[in-house]
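User: My collaborator sent over this chain with a note saying "see what the structure looks like." That's all I know about it. Can you take a look?
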Amino acid sequence: MPDRAKDARDMAMAAADALVNALRDAADKTTDAAKMRALEAVTCWTQALFDMRINYKPEKPNFLVTVRAYALPQAIEVPYHEDYAGCHSWVPLKNELTAVGTPVLSDEAFEAARAAVLKIVAE
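Assistant: Without extra context I'll predict from the sequence alone. Here is the result:
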């Protein structure tokens, strides 16, 4: 049976890394629906999710964020705070997380995957 709490915590660590990559990749954005749909093969998004995001505010660009996942040596629990409630794209944490993980992909594999994603958007 899957450990949903562990999965959620692992996703939180990936989200923290996504923020770092968002700053690095902020210039990688597109309003081109065809480019976004072409990303389906290299992302966790389905065609329906891409279409929903494309149709939400088609005049605004969608930012491409590469995420590097890390395996953590142990779970990190983030206590709930009322500021975390609601609909937010990013939620600043009240306490800094201090964790050191091991990248799931090697540097070379991650950069190759990242380059493949960026190539789709650049075409």
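A starting point for your reply to your collaborator: The first strand starts at residue 29 and ends at 30.
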